[in-house]
TrEMBL record:
InterPro entries: AAA+_ATPase, ABC_transporter-like_ATP-bd, ABC_transporter-like_CS, ABC_transporter_ATP-bind, P-loop_NTPase. This is ABC transporter ATP-binding protein. SUPFAM superfamilies: P-loop containing nucleoside triphosphate hydrolases. Residues 5-243 form the ABC transporter domain. It comes from Nocardioides gansuensis. PANTHER family: ALIPHATIC SULFONATES IMPORT ATP-BINDING PROTEIN SSUB, TAURINE IMPORT ATP-BINDING PROTEIN-RELATED. The lineage of its organism: Bacteria, Bacillati, Actinomycetota, Actinomycetes, Propionibacteriales. Keywords: ATP-binding, Nucleotide-binding, Transport. GO terms for molecular function: ATP binding; ATP hydrolysis activity. SMART domains: AAA (SM00382). The keyword ATP-binding applies. The keyword Nucleotide-binding applies.
Length: 272
């Protein structure tokens, strides 16, 4: 249950108002961006602020259409959102008046195709998967930030999507919670085999999670380099992956790539 995603020569241009004369101008956010994401892989996407990471994710989710180029999932052109792709944002986006369990059941109801008992069962299964089996009846305000984000992840997984798109999902969490959720996410990914595209600002997070790290260049956004991460990920209690020399070398390589970048002058052209 995983899909291959292909982006070929993708361009995205927005119309923005100029600061000086308020005239509409074209703003090139992405230019000829190509990327092939393998079925079942965990790909992390890093790049300077404003380089177009969320724009890429929105395009894969089908929330927006590109100005040029093509995007495909398993060979099919992406023409809009679909239940084969699920998005987790930085904000928790839970319904405050529903319990954790009911939040997931509600999302499954909207999806359709499952009876009441099946929805309840599936919600329990996925809450269990993210370690919240005992918190099913709590309302969002009774959960910590990390727990709320786990519910959001459980909700996205409960659709059993082929692609999980994550836009800085751990950005608002404290360092300890973040590390724990990173480990849980890897273990969930190993069990489900879902294709994951994960945006982050954090180089260590990108190296820890990604089988490959795609580094984007500053405006207009393109893929600068895709780095294959080969680390000894054996799950031993005393194995601190982040403390290894190999981990530090990858971290440094990506840091250097990002540091080399300077923000090009805004690419604008008058259109009105
Ligand atoms: N709907 C829009 N209209 C106009 N400009 C937009 C729109 N969406 C994004 N942009 C611009 O496109 C560029 C890329 O934005 P995007 O949010 O994809 O970057 P990002 O790499 O995710 O940024 P960050 O790391 O800061 O979250 C930015 O300069 C942004 O201002």
């Amino acid at each position: 249950m995983s899909s291959r995603i292909e982006l070929h020569d993708v361009g995205q241009t927005f119309l923005v108002r100029g600061d000086d004369d308020r005239r509409l101008r074209e703003f090139v956010a992405l230019d000829a961006l190509s990327l092939d994401i393998r079925a079942g892989e965990f790909l992390t996407l890093v790049g300077p602020s404003g380089c177009g990471k969320s724009t890429v994710l929105d395009l894969i989710a089908g929330l927006t259409q590109p100005s040029s180029g093509t995007l495909r999932v398993d060979g099919r052109p992406i023409s809009g959102p679909g239940l084969d792709r699920s998005v987790v944002f930085q904000q928790y986006t839970l319904l405050p008046w529903r319990t954790a369990q009911a939040n997931i059941e509600f999302a499954l109801e909207a999806k359709g195709g499952l009876g009441k008992a099946e929805r309840a069962e599936r919600a329990r299964t996925y809450l269990g998967l993210v370690g919240l089996a005992n918190f099913a009846n709590r309302y969002p305000h009774e959960l910590s930030g990390g727990m709320k984000q786990r519910v959001a992840i459980a909700r996205s997984l409960s659709y059993q999507p082929e692609v999980l798109l994550m836009d800085e999902p751990f950005g608002a969490l404290d360092a300890q919670t973040r590390e724990r959720l990173q480990e849980e996410l890897v273990s969930i990914w190993e069990r489900t085999g879902t294709t994951v595209v994960f945006i982050t600002h954090d180089i260590e997070e990108a190296v820890f999670l990604g089988q490959r790290v795609a580094v984007m260049s500053a405006r207009p956004g393109r893929i600068r380099e895709v780095i294959e991460i080969e680390l000894d990920r054996r799950p031993a209690a005393d194995h601190d992956l982040r403390a290894t020399t190999a981990f530090a070398a990858y971290r440094h390589r990506i840091w250097s790539l990002l540091r080399e970048q300077h923000v090009a002058p805004q690419e604008v052209a008058h259109v009105a």
